[in-house]
Design brief:
alpha+beta; three-stranded antiparallel beta sheet; 30% strand; 4 helices; two-stranded antiparallel sheet
């Protein structure tokens, strides 16, 4: 690894130490379905986001709720204290496409239809509101 690349990698690592996030990798639902749920909570206060996810009718909401609880726990661990009500907000959240499993389904006249089982990666950042 070159010196410039190494310095850039160290700068990225140092920046991640001051951010509070959680990642969910390889979640077995399509990214499009997950983005519907993620768009519901973007920018919300965490307690309100947890309530929204608890009563959301989408199956992906349970995975995002668990991820949000993990991000809150990460914030509490790094700051050595419990989060107060109204203190934490979902600052950034995004969904990336994961690995696609390709399967074949029998079709008429000896053909086969392709089934694509998609997965996704979700990254969720929480932080206090900046004045």
């Amino acid at each position: 690894m070159g010196k410039r690349k190494k310095l850039a990698a160290e700068a990225r690592k140092a920046a991640l130490k001051t951010q509070y996030f959680a990642k969910l990798k390889g979640c077995p639902s399509s990214p499009r379905k997950m983005r519907y749920v993620v768009d519901l909570i973007r920018g919300m206060e965490v307690n309100r986001a947890l309530a929204t996810l608890k009563f959301a009718s989408k199956a992906a909401a349970a995975d995002v709720e668990k991820l949000l609880r993990s991000a809150i726990a990460n914030w509490e661990q790094k700051n050595d204290r419990k989060a107060e009500d109204g203190e934490l907000f979902v600052t950034r959240v995004f969904v990336d496409e994961g690995v696609t499993l390709k399967r074949m389904r029998p079709a008429p006249q000896g053909r086969g239809y392709r089934i694509r089982k998609r997965s996704n990666h979700v990254t969720l950042f929480v932080d206090t509101k900046k004045d």
